[in-house]
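Quick board copy: two proteins, each given as sequence then tokens.
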Amino acid sequence: MASGLTGSASEAAETVRQRLRDSIEATRRLLDSECVEQVADVAERIVAALRAGHKVLFFGNGGSSMDAGHLAAEMLGRFHYDRPPLPAVSLPDATAALTAIGNDYSYDDVFARQLRALALPGDVAVGLTTSGNSGNVLRAVQAARELGVLTVVLTGATGGKVAELADVCIRVATEDTPRVQEACMHLGHTICEIVERRMYPRD
């Protein structure tokens, strides 16, 4: 059997290599951006909120909705090691509420209305939006700020409209949607790691 790839298999392998290069480059750019200090600051502010008895609420659409659930699960379960659960909510996971609000009111209200019911002053709301222009994320950030909730958004290079609304807008240095999502999850994982270590340091 020949060891090399030919034809479409070779082209596919090159696509894999190129996407890995793209992802590496997007991540490399983070090292030289303000994201480093922003992520460290957000992690410390989440720690302060949790120690004061507050919670973190995550939200986003599509792939970002799954990322919101993923990050909430890292806090509710465990990240690197066993420890008590950390209070976190993924708003997109509330399927019945999401569809009821979208049907009875507007899809732009699906996160804002949940926040008005669940969020308290001192909580932290974390939105994920690759474009920074998702209507329901914008409305959620506005609602959270009215409620006295710290608003953090993970988004692409331009920041979109949400950049002017959020207390902290973490912009990754690319507008390529898959690379934005990958980079945001990298930063989200890092926040979870820092929070876990600060909340429950290991001996």
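And the next:
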Amino acid sequence: MAAYGLDTHIAANKTRSTLLLGGLFVLVYVMVYAGALIAEVMTYGGAPADYYLTAAARDLIKAFPFATGGTLLWIAIAYFFHQRIVDAVTGGEDVTRQQAPRLYNLLENLCISRGLPMPKLKVIESEALNAYATGLNRRQYAVTVTTGLLNALDDREIEAVLGHELTHIRNGDVQMMVVAVIIAGVVGFFAELFFRSFTNFGYYGGYGGFGRRSWSSRDSSDGNRRSSGGGAVFVIILAVALIALAWLLSQMVRLALSRSREFLADAGSVELTKNPDAMISALRKIENHGELPGATSAIMELCLDNPREGFSDLFATHPSVESRVQALVKFAGGHDPGPLPLLPAAAADDEHQSTDSFPPAKRPWSDTNDGVGASSTAPPGPWGDRVGPWGRH
């Protein structure tokens, strides 16, 4: 877990991620080519397979700038509006130092310790225990946590979670994952569009032999002879296979990016906080309690933990908590306490010599003091007059 080793892994992971994202663009063009194959078969039935393959290649060349432009436009929309979309789905709200002084100071101190820009701080009113980072540039970076997480975790554990999310920002994970989700969304959109169009065309088309126009009506100067239609069947099967393969690969690449980066973010949190046990206990408490109601799969992939499991772990977006904990035990020297019960924040802090109590009904981020070293004026609650790693705030 030394800095050199961590930085080396981060650099290698960024290189692999860049190559994988480039591959996702290739998948978009594969989808366009498959769509061109279907369009040619639907337009001219009974042609030999080599005609369809050649004609679809010409169509791809013509459509290339439009496919590229459309994908870039999709990315541009997400670049400017993805945070609003995420907040609209999850209900995340901006909080200031005055509203959440303790939480704000924990995040700010971590940023100062590594010279990182201070991201926006957001809170979701939810019993779920989770957090995520978003943003594609310094002006957009944001760290979002749930009130359930603030209620259940103590200062050390919340600091570890914030360090995990800051590491995602520092490593460029947020940009990579947002772009990967966007492009995978493009592939999924085109896959559904093609399949719907193919189904509807077949139902309403009234064409015979895979095409509205028979191959015999084509200009014979192409040198192709009339076919029995076997070429069209082959091309349709090929197109469907290409679409399915492109979709499957886009999902696997996206999920692989997410899984590989969670280990590095855990390691980065330990590097920031120097406390592997805090990251381990945070993961143990969050385990199986991270489901955000109403959140899409794309949003859950950005979270600290995604309890939604894939088939035989093939489509799991995150490594298991067990494997992440064992990695921290093996490489960071942490200690695994095993599954932990969820306790109110006050009870959790009592275990670490905190001097304050926490009224269960109080919203932990709704403090109203100025949060600037004024512990005597802070109202009671987890972000009030409490001892943390840098003293009272």
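Board note added afterward: Confidence is low (pLDDT under 50) at residues 204-210, 217-228, 351-393.
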